[in-house]
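Notes from the pairing session

We agreed to fold both candidates in a single pass and log them together. This is the raw record for the first candidate, unedited. Please don't reformat it; downstream parsing expects exactly this layout.

Candidate A
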Amino acid sequence: MPLDYPTNQRLVVLGQTQSGKSQYNKTVLVPDIERYIIWDIKYEYSGGKVVHTIPELKSAVTTKGCLKIIYQPILGTNRIIEFRKVCKFIILYIRGFTFIVDEVQMVAPNNKIPEEFKEIITTGAALGIGCIALSQRPQLFDKTIMTQAEHVLVFFLSSKDLEYVEHYFDKGISWVKTAPKYSYVYYHAGVVETNPPLNL
């Protein structure tokens, strides 16, 4: 089920490995977004212009018609420093894009969120910058990401991670614990919507 939501808002997608989280993002969410920049630390995404450095990112966003960009940091570089550079570039120069951050706990750990990313999370909507944050372990990334999210998709998680997510949203999210594989919950504006398994 594609989501109908303003692309300048914040979406969190949670789920363990093999839960359907990544497949949903790649096959449903991303294809439905017109303009995006993906932080792809695991080199898993395709279908857009792949860049590895800030100069390459700058060249891509200034190229007419280049609306889908995948940032894959060079292996061996400090991912936190590189991530902060990308976030700063987005704040200064990008408007009307969605910033997609895979494995967000790796670059915005609990109580250590980079200030540049925090600015995107807290004020990006006013600048036309949306954000999708994906993670297997919600307890490990900074709580700002959770508290600022208007939309949440939850696939299967461990009991402890589900309890943690319920603290921020709704007890109904625990439905995924006993639901068929690849099922998920969509939470928005206080409403929990259960969804049947993805056709993977």
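Candidate B (folded immediately after A)
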Amino acid sequence: MVDGRSGNHNEKFNLFGRYSHLDFFTFNEATFGPVLQGQPIAGGNPGTGEGTTKSFSVGGVYTFAPNFVVDANFGYVRMYTGVAQSDIDKTTSEILGVDIPGTNGAKDYEGGLARFNISGFERYGITEAYMPYYRDDPQFQYVVNANWTKGAHNIRFGSDIYIQRLNHTQPEFLGTSFGARGGFDFGSGPTQLCARLNANGTCGATSRSSQYNSWATFLLGLPTQLGRLALFDAPYTTRNRAYSFYARDQWQVNNKLTLSLGTRWEYFPMPTRADRGLERYNPETNKVEIGGVGSVPEDLGVEVSKRMFAPRIGLAYRTSTTRTATRTAPTSAKSPARAAISGSSGSVSVWASEPAA
């Protein structure tokens, strides 16, 4: 781990920066070793885990005049995590020495022993269907503020831009999934005896089953379920942006009363993929639409308001006989999730009032 800071300043300008770097590495052995794999011995994910977290920030404050000061900051964070099984560079056929058609694939993340799930026994192969996974998530933030004092007014305004990028390669799906390597389930059904035959020749009842029926099914090579997940987009990406601007005037009306008036404007564009828009199911056409493909607009036709203003009002009153002040601040805030997904303003109103000594 590396963590460094530095700063430089003169009478008008103060510059500072910081950089942090963290590398990590873990290894978790599987129950049956590097060939047959199985459950991780120590919990978590089997195989090798490694990653890097980088953090960089730089900021500065410049005094243009005694009553006008500007400060700005830039921040960058990148978090990378990768976890892969120890046999990721081999195919199921190579590991077992026999041809197992339909397993694995040509992509790097499709290697490793397929999962063999024999009912009543421990599973062979990597048991986590979502492995391997590689996650690369950088974030950027730009902030600038200005403070201007004029008589009884203290005016502050500024802007904040926040960018999030998600890049994930992780072959998984809701429900039953054997992962990118493929897999087989072996139940007891194929090796159970028919205890009663119907008049039409079908079996009306079977003999009692046990885990040994499942083992026999496995030895005969008669899977009761099989499959493999094909990941269409790799890496799977999202791009999120948030823009805001604010202005506030803190007015010292007299020795007893201070007013703070301001507003904040925010805009949350519709998230996208790295090279196109998101996807959605359109119940009116019974089709899945892909933003930016064909006649479908990149934002999927979702209009996000550009008129999201959140007013801020504050009041502080000090009595002359005591050292007590009363403050109240009705305000509203915007929800980026509601604004970006539903297109609404996403307003949340807050009223706060408190006595302060």
